[in-house]
Amino acid sequence: MNASPDRYAVIGHPVDHSKSPEIHAAFAHQTGQKLIYERLPAAPGAFKTTAAAFFADGGAGLNVTLPFKGDAAAYANRLTDRARRAGAVNTLARGDDGTLLGDNTDGIGLVRDLEHRLDIPIAGRRILILGAGGAVRGVIPVLLEYGADAVCIANRTLSKADTIARDFADLGNIQTCALTTSANGWDIVINAISAGLAGEMPNLSPAILENTHGAYDMVYADQPTPFLRWVADHGIERRCDGFGMLVEQAAESFMVWRGVRPQTAEVIAALRPGSDRQRS
Ligand code: ATR
């Protein structure tokens, strides 16, 4: 008798617009892995009960999205180093002994996308990050691990940037500044301000783009994001939104669960919002 396929899901609130089911279905098809991947909505405050029921019912792994990444870190039995540093988990994997490993693949997703699609190796680069929210905690340890020369966190609320810099000070050269005073000289500028999602753009000085080779927005949309439109207006040719990061972090989760690394380029091309295949 054939064993039933392993079950995975993305848990979040809301989760109905998550593209993770399509991405993992594409990975499973490409790698010949048999699995089921669904959406698992959980009400605010109900992460633990929803996840516990999923795993009690034989679930093999979860992707965790907003607002539950911190809850997932507390829920896991063991954390990878990168998840512990981030204080956030986006991947839960059930081991053979039934315990749950918590991992965070957001940072490696960003680094892979920067290196592949923006074609800028991280090693030796000076990187400016706009924003100091939960997403930034996930990516800073990996940027430094991959050899970034310096990372500067520019944030509206400077104290939040300072806290992150202090927490990660042992990992490398981390500086902070106010959004309005970020000095120039940054090879790569990464936007992690969630305001971009709502179509807004904070007031930024074009001076931050002097000497910049590439700009990356951690959010994505059907149309170029306000941040990417702004950098385009200021002459930055290498620009990339966060859709590739979403697919790359999913590929790393797939690797954690299945031990196989999918090819991401064809999945990004097929599923990117606004792509011909998605519209057809
Ligand atoms: P995420 O999980 O996406 O990182 P978050 O933890 O809520 O979300 O963090 C949101 C980030 O966007 C913060 O850095 C926030 O700045 P503050 O720390 O000063 O709140 C930033 N942000 C949100 N709206 C903004 C705006 N209108 N102008 C500037 N920064 C903004």
Automatic annotation (TrEMBL):
- Residues of the Shikimate dehydrogenase substrate binding N-terminal domain: 10-92
According to its UniProt record, the EC number is 1.1.1.25
- Residues in Quinate/shikimate 5-dehydrogenase/glutamyl-tRNA reductase domain copies: 122-195
Q: One GO BP annotation here?
A: chorismate biosynthetic process
Q: Which SUPFAM superfamilies match?
A: Aminoacid dehydrogenase-like, N-terminal domain, NAD(P)-binding Rossmann-fold domains
The protein's annotated catalytic reaction(s) are:
shikimate + NADP(+) = 3-dehydroshikimate + NADPH + H(+)
Q: Where is the SDH C-terminal domain?
A: 242-272
Query: Where shikimate is bound, by residue?
Result: 18-20, 65, 90, 106, 220, 249
Subunit note: Homodimer.
Task: Relate the protein's function as given in its record.
Answer: Involved in the biosynthesis of the chorismate, which leads to the biosynthesis of aromatic amino acids. Catalyzes the reversible NADPH linked reduction of 3-dehydroshikimate (DHSA) to yield shikimate (SA).
The protein in question is named: Shikimate dehydrogenase (NADP(+))
Query: What lineage is this protein's organism placed in?
Result: Bacteria, Pseudomonadati, Pseudomonadota, Gammaproteobacteria, Salinisphaerales
